[in-house]
Amino acid sequence: MPEFPPTPHVRRPRRLVTALFAVVAVGLMTVGAGLAMSEPDGPIDLNGATVALEPGTTPSPDVVEKMDAVDDAGQRFAIPSVGLSVPLGALSMTANTITPPGFTSAYLVRNLGASIDDPEQGTVFVVMHSLREGGVGPGNYLIDVADETASIAPGTTVNVGDLSYTVTGDLAITKTGIQSQDDVWEDIPGKLVIITCLQRPDGGPSNENIVITAQLDS
């Protein structure tokens, strides 16, 4: 079971915007990690603003190497109803950690559940960042911050590469509680699980995740 990571910042001219990583405390794993950016350059969000991660959350070079993350594996992750279409990358859970490296892609977890080449064999897991205080990651399209819930309803179409899924539900769960939420991690033929941070209306660091479930279309 995975965990997810903590809190990036978005740097804009004359203004520092704090943002929060897609973080889930899942079993033994963490999704996300961080780096305090002191330079005006670095990873960017979907609006081109520079993102700075929270200090002390960067995975070790060995973990980064083994994760073998790619930001674009040649396909797209899209939810047409909310105007989201981003590159579909991939990474491996390493040392019980899932750490999406970028803020403009969604990431398949290669070694958890099933692959998109054979989705009928089990659950496909996709993770991504949402950001706060002005930052925009793919996960921001999936959350309603004011109502503290998902922004996409059951029946919504989700495209993962060439696959089409229909949303079946969502769950807001604490980062500490998700590790024991067995139904999030169960391996079910044709199931899709999307995980991102649920941002808070007060702008503080996220302490919950949104888990969105969907089922493969016939």
SSE succession: EEEEEHEEEEEEEEEHEE
Main beta-sheet annotation: 8 strands, mixed, barrel
Strand content: 35-45%
Helix content: under 10%
Give the count of helical stretches: 2
Distance between the termini: 28 Å
Strand order within the widest beta sheet: 6-7-9-10-15-16-14-13
Strand runs, count: 16
Uncertain spans, ≥5 residues at pLDDT below 50?
A: 9-40
Q: Shape, please? A: globular
- What gyration radius follows from the Cα positions, in whole Å? 16 Å
* Mean model confidence by pLDDT: 82
Structural class: mainly beta
Essential attributes:
218 residues; 2 helices; mainly beta; 3-stranded antiparallel beta sheet; 8-stranded mixed beta barrel
